[in-house]
Amino acid sequence: MAITNDEVKKIAQLAGLQVTEADIATYADNLSNILNLVGQMDNADTSEVKPMAHPFDNSARLRADVVSEQDQRDALLAIAPETESGLYLVPKVIEE
Amino acid sequence: MHNKTLAEIARDLEAKNYSSVEVTQHFLDRIKNLDAKFNSFITVTADHALAQAQAADAARAEGKAGPLTGVPIAQKDIFCTQGIKTSCGSKMLDNFISPYDATVVKKFNNAGCVMLGKTNMDEFAMGSSNENSFYGPVVNPWQENTVPGGSSGGSAAAVAARLTPGATGTDTGGSIRQPAALCGITGLKPTYGRVSRYGMVAFASSLDQGGPMTQTAEDAALMLNVMAGFDERDSTSLDVDTPDFTATLNKDLKGMTIGLPKEFFDERLSPEMAKQIDAVKNELTKLGINFKEISLQATALSIPAYYIIAPAECSSNLSRFDGVRFGHRCENPKSLKDLYERSRAEGFGTEVKRRIMIGTYALSAGYYDAYYLKALKIRRLIHNDFENAFTEVDAILGPTTPTPAFKIGEKSDDPISLYLSDIYTTAVNLAGLPGISIPCGQINNLPVGCQLIGPRLQEARLLNIAHQLQQHTDWHKQAPQIEAN
After folding, report:
1. SS3 B209
2. Is A66 on the interface with B (CB under 8 A)?
3. CB contact residues (below 8 A), chain A span 6-35, against chain B
4. Which pLDDT value is given to residue B485?
5. CA-nearest residue of chain A to B430?
6. How close are the terminal C-alpha atoms of chain A, in Å?
7. Predicted local confidence at residue A96, as pLDDT
């Protein structure tokens, strides 16, 4: 299974990663090699097997709906790159 | 003083042979004098450590000391520490000061342990050589040009160089056991869910598990006693009783059966490594253990399944690093999309980006069934193999790694060859089982380790076997000659 340069661009876009033109061929090569390795999975017949997402098939535990966390708004905003009036700042999303 | 085990230091503190401040200062001095060579610490927290040591000495004077009060340890830089940088080995978190403590950190604080600092690691725990750290590679104390293994390479090197008597690690596909083997120390990956993941930066959440890295199995038991336990704040924490892991260290091993998976002893195993495992077998036979050949056929596919499941979970977990709420942000973003894409491109290293891309691909429309779902089915087959094996045997023995430590730079251009060095470890994570690596001699003057794998929640049994072996052998006492260099 070979990954093309165009596929690398598409994957990078889905992953929210900027890739430079210079890196695209290397990624295509690396990702193709990894897919060749994982392609060995096709050797196993799994038609009757149920997928296992978690060890011991444990699922998320339920708890009572009570407040367990204290307000840490200031502490959490203090580590953000840019804030104003208690809000996170990002570049404008909706054009005028 | 620095060659003492955690247990010995605990006994010395109890006997008031020296104070926690004295032993803490001793290790801080060693780190200061020696770690420039190894690069095993990202952050040394000297003032914090001495304040904790003073508090520990005061608690002891008041008769309020516990088993590990005043004992120094190091934390892998993946565990969040309130007010102290938690980088996870990444530029992305180079400026990150956690607003809270991980449960594991809180437990060590409550136990009165002293934190010497935060240890180096592969970025976001992705790697098997510790060459993927933003803070530079860690050097194996046994031989200057070799890797310590990874991702908990800083913790392993620091314990091996006697810069700390014990350290925490995390293990997603071998990241505790493999560096422990390559640095000649003991490393335990507990059962998935035994140790809380709260405040441990997530890589692959269904595989990640924290555990102790120490000189001996006894020390691992002491540290696990602090680390283990149910945590409300971790949704996959196991709500089970936590035994005293030191209580059964001296149980008689007579009559126990250990399985030898033929897949671990095939032509891929070097004769040198096979010889070391044979030596372990001989010692365990003398202790009354029987051996039986077993088969773990599906483990042949553990690397392919692992390198889909782990990247898939990583691509999802690492989507939180977006340059908005914490971590690295690029300069002058032109748009929100530019902010995301450039912050992530600048903040993540090559291996992390590679895994995010593979995971994104495996989860994308059209490929999900062929890769992700297929890998989850193979995971079930691997799990079933272990379940079947444990109806016949009490534990499983094999090598931890195919070879001793390799040279720095040897595999850094070839990700696949590095992935293949995990062949004996990833299956254990996929099945969620406990595994321990203990030293079993040397090949070309570099240490190697053997791995014991146990049924779910049977850490005490693994520690029992490892401790008994260490009572009758001295592999774990061999340390690198670093002073002379």
Report:
1. coil
2. no
3. 7-8, 11-12, 14-19, 27, 30-31, 33-35
4. 42
5. A55
6. 45
7. 63
ipTM, 2 dp? 0.95
Q: Give which of B407, B371, B380 is closest to B147, Cα–Cα.
A: B407
* pLDDT digit string, tens, across residues B221-259: 999 999 999 999 999 999 999 999 999 999 999 999 999
Q: What is the CATH number of domain A1-43?
A: 1.10.20.60
Q: Domain span at residue B208?
A: 1-485
Contact yes or no for B185/B149 (Cβ under 8 A): no
Cα B386 to Cα B147, B383, B391, B427, distances in angstroms: 31, 5, 9, 9
Give, to the nearest 10 degrees, the angle between helix B153-160 and helix B20-38. Answer: 120
The answer to whether B355 and B317 are in contact (CB under 8 A) is no
Per-residue burial over B188-200, b if 16 or more Cβ lie within 10 Å, else e, is bbbbbbbbbbbbb
Would you state the torsion angle of the CA atoms of residues B475, B480, B481, B485, taken in this order, to the nearest 10 degrees?
A: 160
For residues B450 and B398, the answer to whether their CB atoms sit within 8 Å is yes
What's the mean pLDDT when you consider all of chain B? 96
Domain count within chain B = 1
CATH number at residue B62: 3.90.1300.10
Q: Which among B151, B37, B131 has a CA at the least distance from the CA of B483?
A: B37
Rounded Cα distance, B194 and B240, in Å: 8
pLDDT in tens, B121-162: 999 999 999 999 999 999 999 999 999 999 999 999 999 999
Query: Best mutation site among B353, B382, B422, B433 for testing chain A: the one with the most A CBs within 10 Å?
Result: B353
The residue from B152, B155, B175, B421 that is catalytic is: B175
What's the average model confidence in pLDDT over B208-228? 98
C-alpha distances out from residue B217 to B5, B201, B245, Å = 10, 26, 10
How distant is the Cα of A47 from the closest Cα of chain B, in angstroms? 9
Query: How far is B454 from B377, CA to CA, in rounded Å?
Result: 22
C-beta separation of B355 from B123 below 8 A? no
- Any chain B CB within 8 A of the CB of A67? no
Is it the case that residue B165 has pLDDT exceeding 50? yes
**Read out DSSP for B297-324?**
GGGGGHHHHHHHHHHHHHHHHGGG-SSS
Q: How far apart are CA B40 and CA B135, in angstroms?
A: 10
CB B120, CB B127: distance < 8 Å: no
Choose the weakest-confidence range: A55-59, B10-14, B443-447: A55-59
Burial zone of B358 (CB within 10 Å; 0-12 exposed, 13-18 middle, 19+ buried): buried
* Cβ separation A41–B378 shorter than 8 A: yes
Output the six-digit token pair for B484: 């002379």
Indicate the residue type of A44. Answer: A
Type of residue found at A64: A
pLDDT for residue A56 is more than 80: no
